[in-house]
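idk why but the lab printer keeps eating my pages so im just putting this in chat instead. protein + S-adenosyl-L-homocysteine:
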Amino acid sequence: MKVFLKKGREGPILRGHPWIFSGAIEKADPDSEDAAVAEVFDSRGNWLARGLYNPKSQIRVRILTWEKEEIDSSFFSRRLSQAAALRERFLFPYTNSYRVVNGEGDLLPGLVVDRYGDFLVCQFFTAGIDKLKEVVVDALSSLFKPKGIYERSEGGVRDEEELPPSVGVLAGEEPPELVRIEENQISFLADVRKGQKTGFFLDQRDNRALLSSLARDMTVLNCFAYTGGFAAYALKAGAKRVISVESSRSALDLARQSFDLNGFSVADQDLLRADAFSYLKSCTEQRDIVVLDPPSLAHKRGDVAAAAGSYKFLNLHALRLLKPGGLLLTFCCSQHLSLDLFQKIVFGAAVDAGRRVQIIKRVGHPPDHPVSLHHPEGEYLKGLLLQPLE
Ligand code: SAH
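predcted complex ->
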């Protein structure tokens, strides 16, 4: 498969950006539409890079390498070893569950691999990487020797590529219904087969640790709690009371089980199944710390205006509920809203809430979710630790 770019469209590729949009392509070799790998040339026929070909996607090619190296099992072993070394350097021995491969951030576009104890959970998001599944699974098996490799390729980007969902065991044993994981000496139960994402929000680990450094003797309101990740860290740190608000019954059930596993006692009334928007609006009791970790409210660029209104609403009501000296830890996980825009939205919320607010810290991705400097689109998680001044 050969892809020739239009005249003058090679700049981003030469600078290391991994995506080629359909509009930049002059012609593609039509004989091999089914190929996984494409050779990329500029308009004069100079070889530029080698990437994954996605015939139905706007992002027609995702670059794997700027070297003339074969895309085979030893290529994936090299990339995976590099990814593993990064995690080893930053994460061990604090956790046995982390992101092993973060797509473009690890120069493996379209691929996400998360480790949950002895199991790996994979997501093959695009057509190109989907066709190389077997060789990727072999490389993962020989490098990590997991008990089992499970696939959760569904939703999001896969829909855009017109790929059907693909879920099930790829190698070894099927993971149990709940996998027990350890993170910073706290135990959690993760439903890796049916839970959100691949079962747990691994990306918030460092931000949960930040909360635990602040939570001693505090009352904490944890909105969009999922399986109680932030709540457990606050409880471990000795928070006075932690109230979790979450719309999913199954997530709250898992939170309860994880709390029990750690010996945290939490009253039923503090595991609240509710819509966080209505809860925040009607709540009148003030708290020391509020955590706001909503799901992505903008899935595409066109959603940004409506999402801005929702983020403002949440942050306004959260700021309103803070005691003097209180703290708001607020997040946005939509890649379509920049940190700059998110900060402006929160500023608007502070003005409307009538509070003068300090930024104590800006937070983002942990080391197992690296972002390529050449691909800032990969940065989705941003957070602000805020303190009203009065
Ligand atoms: N903070 C969590 C992750 C939160 S993900 C952690 O560290 O693990 C966002 C969560 O918000 C999901 O569990 C989702 O079920 C929940 N959610 C989505 N819409 C909601 C709403 N309107 N009210 C309450 N919870 C909601």
